[in-house]
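User: quick one, sequence for these tokens?
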């Protein structure tokens, strides 16, 4: 997998091709050397000069190598991974999440506040408070697609009850929508506590990803440019998608017979749109789905064994 990424990056960007000898007869860094440095920065964060002793690469070269890498990754993989999912891919996601105890789950939603650590003093406060968890949610296009009927139809059963809309995991700050399953506040039973732990395990990979990205941006971002920060975020997403992909699941996805789910802005009849949005925001469905999931996850993983063993089992399955 690593060598495949090396070959892809080297073919796209000549910066990663080993140069000829310099004036003192030393060969330049190899492609593998440069990618190891870039990926180590993405994996662990930290300042660029911390890699000098281990990889014999100066701070400026480490920074440039990382920036070249993230831009190249975007150029190579953006079209494949930053696109609407295909119908069969949605089915794979649903199948995988059902095996983890979350039937009908499409993904998770969270608003990450990424502080611009090197923001110029003259711009301080200009963007403060412009986005938070709630207004980002209202800008999120996926629910627009659901309301206009352009998403894949999802039907599933949880704890004996039928549901017709996929859902996303979300924190308790979000509204009580039928398409959001929130954390149980102040869990009062072992079932609720076990369900919360299952959610944490499900979201752990993404949390680690953003945590590392936030560390790096303090060390590479010029004080007057936000573009490196944007590229870093996109590169982290693409690397995670490329590394975690399962060839058995993705085999056969490409082709005209399985195009990406269409995204457009054609508005249906206003009455249909309003009715669908009302269904999305039904609080009773949100509460019922949360309770059904608690019972389902407990019956699948918690009821048949003691609590510590059930927690370890859930960690292993994720």
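Assistant:
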């Amino acid at each position: 997998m690593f060598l495949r990424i090396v070959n892809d990056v080297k073919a796209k960007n000549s910066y990663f091709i080993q140069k000829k000898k310099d004036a003192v007869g030393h060969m330049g860094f190899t492609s593998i050397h440069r990618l190891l440095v870039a990926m180590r920065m993405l994996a662990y964060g930290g300042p660029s000069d911390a890699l000098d002793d281990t990889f014999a690469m100066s701070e400026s070269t480490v920074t440039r190598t990382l920036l070249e890498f993230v831009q190249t990754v975007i150029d190579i993989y953006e079209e494949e991974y930053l696109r609407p999912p295909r119908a069969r891919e949605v089915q794979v996601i649903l199948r995988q999440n059902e095996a983890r105890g979350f039937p009908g789950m499409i993904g998770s939603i969270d608003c990450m506040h990424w502080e611009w650590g090197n923001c110029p003093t003259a711009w301080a406060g200009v963007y403060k408070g412009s986005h938070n968890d709630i207004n980002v949610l209202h800008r999120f296009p996926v629910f627009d697609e659901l309301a206009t009927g352009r998403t894949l139809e999802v039907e599933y059963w949880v704890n004996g009850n039928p549901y017709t809309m996929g859902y996303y995991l979300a924190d308790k700050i979000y509204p009580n929508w039928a398409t959001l399953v929130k954390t149980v506040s102040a869990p009062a039973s072992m079932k609720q506590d076990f369900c919360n732990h299952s959610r944490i395990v499900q979201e752990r990979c993404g949390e680690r990803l953003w945590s590392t990205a936030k560390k790096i941006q303090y060390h590479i971002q010029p004080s007057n440019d936000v573009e490196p920060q944007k590229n870093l975020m996109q590169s982290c997403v693409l690397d995670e998608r490329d590394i975690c992909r399962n060839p058995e699941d993705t085999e056969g996805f490409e082709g005209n017979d399985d195009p990406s789910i269409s995204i457009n802005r054609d508005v249906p009849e206003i009455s249909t749109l309003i009715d669908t949005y009302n269904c999305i925001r039904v609080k009773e469905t949100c509460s019922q789905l949360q309770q059904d999931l608690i019972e389902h996850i407990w019956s699948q993983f918690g009821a048949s064994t003691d609590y510590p063993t059930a927690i370890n089992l859930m960690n292993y399955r994720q």
